[in-house]
Amino acid sequence: MATIYQERFDVGPHIKQRTVGRSAYHRPCYPPMGEHDLFFCGISSGKDTFEVERIDAPFHALLFCVEGEFELYEDGRSMALRAGELGVLPPVGRRGFRLVGNRPCKVVWFLLMDRPRWQFLPREQITIIASDAGPTLLDAASLFHREADRFHLNTPGTQVVAVLDLLMMMLERALAPLHPTLGWPEQLQALFNTVAQRLDEHWSLERLAEHLHITPAHLHRLCRQHLGNAPAQQLFLLRMNRARALLQQGDKVSDVALAVGYQEVASFSRRFRQHFGVSPSSVQRPTQRYGQPASPSPSLRPVDAGYG
Question: Spans of biased composition, class Polar residues (predicted)?
Fold first, then answer.
C-alpha cells in the first residue's frame, strides 16, 4: 500500500534544481533507483526563497551543504546547517528546512526510503554532523542526472547503471560515521553491496562465507534469518535486477548476460524469462516517456510516495 504524506514547497525562481526520481511523476525518472532504496535526489543552488516542509514523510531527507546556510526545524527546535555539514531529517513527524542568510546556496540532497538498509540513520530528531562529502556527492549526483536524462530521452550509450552504482557507493561512504558497530544485518548488507558491484564474477557459497569469516552453513542460516532468502537466491535477485536495468539502458542481451555472471546467453535468457515472465529482448530500450511533474504548491498538499 502506498504511503500518503503532506509537503509544502516555497521555492523562488532563482533557485536552480536538477533532480532525478524513481516515480513516474519525476523528471527525469529512473525507476531502478528503488532497488537502492533511493526515492529522489537532486542538487539545488542559487539565492532566493527556498523552504520545504513535510508531514509524516516516509523517507529520510539528507542535505549535504556545500555553500550557504540553512535552518533545519522540527516541533519546537531548530538547528543551523552550514557548509561542510550533513543534516539528516528523519521520517515521520513535521520537519523542514529553509535557506537563511545572504549567501547563495549549493546543496546536494537525497530522499531515502524508510527501509532496513537505512535503519542506522537517526530516527528521533534532526541530526547534523561535519561532512566533507558534499563536493564529491555533488559531482556524482550531477553526473547521474545527466545520464538519467539521456536514459529518459532514449539516447544511445547511456551509462546510468554504472553512475548510479558510483553515486550509491559515494553516499554510503559519506554515511559511514553514522554507522553503529555493525551487526549481522549490516554485515550481510555490506557483503551483498560488494557482490552487486562484481556480478560478473563467480560467487560460490564458500566464497561468500569466506568474506565474513564464517562457515557456509552459518551464512545460509544468517541469510534466511535476516534477508529472508538463501544466499544463492539473494545473489540471483541481484543478478536479475541488474540485468533488467542494463537491458532497459539499451545494452545487448549477450553483453548483459556476461555482466551478470552468465557465460551462456541461452541459460541467462531462460532464467530471466522464468523470473520476470518475459524475454530479455522484450524489456530493451523502453519507449515510455515519463511526464513532467506538477508544479509545486506553496501550501501543504498530500503526496503519494508510490511505495509502502
Answer: 279-290
